[in-house]
Structures are given as structure tokens and as C-alpha cells.
């Protein structure tokens, strides 16, 4: 007779091993989302640490499905709790793209300046988005999650995710257009 193994029947060392196997690989995604939501590197690190502690504490509540979506839901909720707890506006800190992208083919100085200007414009425009637009945009476009995964992580209907993404993309396009036309004058 085979014994049925459930999350609640897992002994603590096995729970830790399973947690590390399933959840730990998504650490970079957790940090990326937290970084965009807190708009501060150090706060994002704190939020991710708190998120992983919460995720481990409530790992018994994980019943399969997409682990990345489950973890990013924890990160998202932790960010919202953190923002309410802090009760302050988060200061704007520029995201250093060079720290998070490999140097494949080093462009010449002019190409680098043009690309840096485009990235700064995009980064600034993303940072001006309301949090509810920014979080779905980051999960879908930067973390490459499916609409269903984003909906699961954000605890929203898929239609709402699609609507928010559409509105976020439109606002980004408008913001970039304004900045481009302002720069060419």
C-alpha cells in the first residue's frame, strides 16, 4: 500500500528542499518585480527577503500550479503591505540597466548614447505609471509571464490584466511620444 504524500505531511527538511527546488529559482523575477514596485534597490531587497520568508511560512498552502506566479503573488502582496506600512512616497531611484544586462556586443559611443537615451525614456515612463499598471506590465513584458500567470499572481481576472496592459502600453507610447517630441524641439 502506497502512502499519499501531501504538502502538509512533508517533514521540515523535505519541505525546505522542495521549497528550494520549486521557489528559489524565481529569485531574480521576485527581485525584478519588487524593484519596479518599490522603485528602490534596497527596499526591493527587503521586500524580497520578507516575501521569501512569507512564502516559506505559507508553503503548505501552495498546491501546485505555476510556482513563479504563486511567488510573484506573494511578492506583490508583500510590496503592497510594505507600501501601506511605510506610508510614504517612494523616492525615485534610477534603475541601473548595466547591472542587469550582459555586455554582448559593445556598441560604439554614439550607439550607446542613443540606446541609453531610449532606455532612460522607457524607464522614466514606466516609473510614472500607476502601480496597478506597472505591476502587470513588469510581470508580462519583463518577466514574460502568460496572461493567466499574471492574473493568478495579481489575483485579477484575465480580462482585467489584458485591459491594464493595454492601458499601460498606451500610456507608455504617449509618454515616450511626448518626450521624443519635446527633445526634438
Give a quick precis of the structure.
The chain is mainly α and 185 residues long. Helix content is 68%, strand content 0%.
The oligomeric status of these chains comes to single chain
Average pLDDT, all residues: 82
Distance between the termini: 78 Å
Can you tell me the CATH class?
Mainly Alpha
Q: Going by CATH, what is the homologous superfamily?
A: PhyR, sigma-like (SL) domain
Largest sheet: none
Structural class by SSE content: mainly alpha
> What would the CATH topology be?
Butyryl-CoA Dehydrogenase, subunit A, domain 3
> Which blocks of ≥5 consecutive residues have pLDDT under 50?
1-5, 89-93
Compute the CA-based radius of gyration: 19 Å
CATH-defined architecture: Up-down Bundle
Report strand %. Answer: under 5%
Could you tell me the number of beta strands?
A: 0
Work out the helicity level: 55-70%
Q: What would the principal axes of the Cα set say about the shape?
A: globular
Secondary-structure element pattern, one letter each: HHHHHHHH
Amino acid at each position: 500500500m502506497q502512502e499519499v504524500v501531501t504538502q502538509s505531511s512533508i517533514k521540515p527538511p523535505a519541505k525546505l528542499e522542495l521549497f528550494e527546488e520549486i521557489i528559489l529559482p524565481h529569485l531574480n523575477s521576485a527581485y525584478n518585480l519588487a524593484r519596479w514596485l518599490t522603485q528602490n534597490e534596497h527596499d526591493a531587497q527587503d521586500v524580497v527577503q520578507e516575501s521569501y520568508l512569507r512564502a516559506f511560512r505559507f508553503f503548505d498552502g501552495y498546491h501546485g500550479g505555476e510556482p513563479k506566479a504563486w511567488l510573484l503573488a506573494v511578492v506583490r502582496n508583500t510590496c503592497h503591505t510594505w507600501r501601506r506600512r511605510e506610508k510614504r512616497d517612494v523616492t525615485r531611484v534610477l534603475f541601473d540597466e548595466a547591472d542587469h544586462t550582459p555586455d554582448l556586443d559593445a556598441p560604439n559611443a554614439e550607439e550607446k548614447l542613443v540606446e541609453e537615451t531610449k532606455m532612460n525614456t522607457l524607464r522614466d515612463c514606466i516609473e510614472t505609471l500607476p502601480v496597478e499598471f506597472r505591476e502587470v506590465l513588469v510581470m508580462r513584458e519583463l518577466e514574460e509571464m502568460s496572461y493567466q500567470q499574471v492574473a493568478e499572481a495579481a489575483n485579477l481576472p484575465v480580462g482585467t490584466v489584458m485591459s491594464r496592459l493595454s492601458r499601460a502600453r498606451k500610456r507608455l507610447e504617449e509618454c515616450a511620444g511626448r518626450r521624443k517630441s519635446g527633445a526634438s524641439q
